[in-house]
Amino acid sequence: MNMKDVLSTIETEDIKYVDFRIVDLLGRQHHVTVPAYAVDEDTFVNGVAFDGSSLTGYKSIEESDMVAMPDPATAFIDPFVEEKTLNIVCNILNPDNSPYDRDPRGIALKAEAYLKNLGIATAAYFGPESEFFLFDNVRYASGPSGSFYHIDSEEAYWNTGKEGQNLGYKVRNKGGYFPVQPTDTQADIRNEMCTLLTQSGIKVERHHHEVATAGQGEINFRFDTLTRTADNLLLFKYIVRNVAAKHGKTATFMPKPIVGDNGSGMHVHQSLFDGDTPLFFEKGAYANLSETALHYIGGILHHAPALIALTNPSTNSFKRLVPGYEAPVNLVFSKGNRSAAVRIPVAAVTPKASRIEFRTPDSTANPYLAFAAMLMAGLDGIAKKLDPREMGFGPLDKNIYDLSDVEKNEIKSLPGSLAEALEALESDHEFLLAGDVFTKDLIDSWISHKRDEIQQVERTVNPKEYELYYDL
């Protein structure tokens, strides 16, 4: 849609309200709703004013006036509100209408512009696989008198002995991949999610139950350009959460909500194109990968310790990134190997579908920042001709988890905590500053916010500590 299309849709679809959406530094969406009769061409020229001091990572109170500038191409009709509402994603501007340097969506747009200016490619395509859990109940608290969390699901293996009506068919620990009904109790819910995603303009490819017990699922949608895919991912999470709520369930994209079972990742497929020409394909080479693709992989793996401060930016992320739960913690690449940080899909792949898959990220990432950072790492690899084969990053076509200790010691690993990842980002971020895509100010702000989160977690008494230390 363009501006005229949006204004026409408001009239022809009898839209009552227009919802303008922005995203804060950490990736949470916010919105302000305006009566449709008050939306006109001036709205798309002057934007919508808001208080930037009230959003995480934005302005301080003495300079808080900011502008949300609608992007008409993102408009869709909200399926969850009673009064017919059109939702539009916005870019963040300063009061003088200049781009705001900390706007995550603005950074994604700058990354795409930087790619084109380099002359390497005309477009970068991204396709995330964002896993999630649907629970029937969640309770948690953290305070001076006690801390706890409790989750429940009708599918959970721990409910095999639940009293009252119990029809069995529980999902075993690590046994939830592709079961049919009645074991898969959420097929109809995922169908509904997919229907609404399609109606909202997102092309769904497939959905299925995932490996973990207690209602883990995955819905794959079609790749798109970097910024548009980030838009789609936020819309995806919005639809998943609201359909779950409609059915009396709660959705979470937390990387590791369950102890002892698989977590939820966000494997990110990536490719570069020059017009209609795929730049990652070379027939007959290893995994049919071009030198450009290999250099891109070299950049991803070389900068991975810093990169995951943006792609896995929660303390919970590193509870998923441990061996034994299908989480890639080893910095190698391989064809078709899901134990590698970078996998090269080879099944049913055409030249235009040739791509790399970075398997480490999770959905606590702000997608605009994470996708932009991945692209910048890959472009740095191309510019410097970083060859992952010469850097000790593989290829390694073995199950890494089955290697001997000696073999494993030769493989570089990811940082073991968010604190270590932030230290890596602090010392390795020049690749993000190229083309003024990221700014030092934003990176410093990100590190500061994330270190504050670490302190909050570290200073909170953990129930496990009672078990370990109460009687010492």
Task: Give an overview in words.
- GO terms for molecular function: ATP binding; glutamine synthetase activity; metal ion binding.
- The protein is α+β, with helices and mostly antiparallel strands and about 475 residues long.
- It has 2 domains: about 5-100, Roll (Ubiquitin-like (UB roll)), CATH 3.10.20; about 125-470, Creatine Kinase, Chain A, domain 2 (2-Layer Sandwich).
- It is about 30% helix and about 20% strand.
- It has 14 helices and 18 strands.
- Strands 7, 10, 11, 12, 13, 14, 15, 16, 17 and 18 form a 10-stranded mixed beta sheet that branches.
- Strand 5 (about 75) and strand 6 form a beta hairpin.
- The longest helix has 21 residues, at about 225-245.
- The N and C termini lie far apart (about 65 Å).
- The relative contact order is 0.12.
